[in-house]
Amino acid sequence: MPFDYHNLRAGAAVASSDEQFAQAVLEGLSKEPKRLPSWLIFDDRGSEIFTEITQLGEYHPARCEFEIFQTHKQVITDMLAKQAFRAIELGAGDGGKTQILLEHFIQNQLAFDYVPIDISEGAIKNLVAVLESRFSQSTMSVTGLAADYFDGLREIRAHSNLRNLVLFLGSTIGNMELSAAEQFVRKLRELLNEGDYVMIGFDLMKHPKTLYSAYNDSSGVFERFNLHLLDILNRKLGANFEKDHYVQQGHYNPSTHAVESHIYSTREQVVFIDALGREFSFGAWEPMQTEHSYKYTQTEIELLAEKSGYRIVKHLFDTHHNFVDSIWEVIK
Ligand SMILES: C[S@@+](CC[C@H](N)C(=O)[O-])C[C@H]1O[C@@H](n2cnc3c(N)ncnc32)[C@H](O)[C@@H]1O
After folding, report:
1. Are 299 and 312 in contact (CB under 8 A)?
2. Atom of ligand 1 nearest to the CA of 171
3. What topology does CATH give the domain 60-207+297-330?
4. For 43-58, what is each residue's pLDDT tens digit?
């Protein structure tokens, strides 16, 4: 089947990811100050709201990455033209930007397969349907995987030995702290072969006021995105958060080099979480961190690549050097 999709998140995998989710919430709400990891927000609805974010004029990471792909699609095509390859996308979401590349690869008659992987089953199903409606006349075959990044990668590895191009876009790597990002790219390298490529989208450090506008949009989409986490906790863990009594704000924190979004409890309140069998108290205006988006310098990116066993092939910047898609080659 040229346009196919598989859900690897069934049975034991779902039970284990539900357990991981509950554990992350318990740990996060027990911290002082409270802090939940960014990945909790991405259920199907969370992915849909994130797509709205990528369409905001203020949200420069998506705007810049669209520009980078439009400007440099031929450079990427030339790099891949010599042999058949497989484009694997980690956390593909709606694949909006990637479709610029896929279309160009097809127009240039490159021989390739595309494997988008995302934890959100809804996002993967939609993406495969969109690709089928746009590209069914092409030779590209698409296999969407609803899976965790590394479960998806392990599954594919068992099936082929084509050269791989792994895409990790949208500044998703920024949701990890620097040490976790290093572990992530090292683990990724272990699953790849010598000569495989990795292309990672990094948001670069810039004026903190620009960062502030990007994460506090005037139409309130970011606030809706972060508060959606409370809906997820209510649904998945039987919590009783009342969303109307929380607000959101994001700001750049110079000591962590990251934009951090916080949800603030607008009054004293106690929340019961059934699945954890526990109550959690919130003071008036107590913050709870819900997002972390690390802002990189070019030097940090280069160090990350070199320390983790990659050779830097190219940096693709937008006009204003706000964002970079950095292409690395695996060295073994
Ligand atoms: C910041 S969004 C980026 C989406 C898209 N790549 C873009 O650039 O617009 C992160 C994506 O990664 C997915 N994701 C988060 N954690 C994941 C995991 N552990 N395994 C697979 N996908 C994950 C989310 O569902 C979401 O679609």
Report:
1. no
2. 1
3. Rossmann fold (3.40.50)
4. 999 999 999 999 999 9
